[in-house]
Specification:
- The chain contains five helices and no strands.
- It starts with a helix and ends with a helix.
Amino acid sequence: MTSKIINMAEKLRDAEDRMLESLFASEPIADDGFSQRVVRRIRRRIWIRRLALPVAMVVGGAIAIKPASQILVAASKLLTVVPQDVVVKPAEWLPQVQGIAISGSLVQMAIYGTVLLGVGLLGARALTD
């Protein structure tokens, strides 16, 4: 319904509307390319902001590979230290301990990743400013 009203208003332009349009019609102001430079700079900043998060994630992931591998090696060593009779013996608390160890390492990895991501985002923001 709105489009019909707008189209009808465009068709019913009278002399006053044409006179107002001619009053406000003007040529673009010569600014020696200033507007284009501003638009180019704004578009560049938009692209930098769009790319900052994925780049920070890749860099953070690359940096977090070493601590993550160290955590996995430490966890595998920890599991080999556990005596076989404890592993074979049915105990209700054993899965809980393993779950706590695994969740603790995951939380530690998440903290490392969050810190690295924050540092990456701050670095990207410093580059854009």
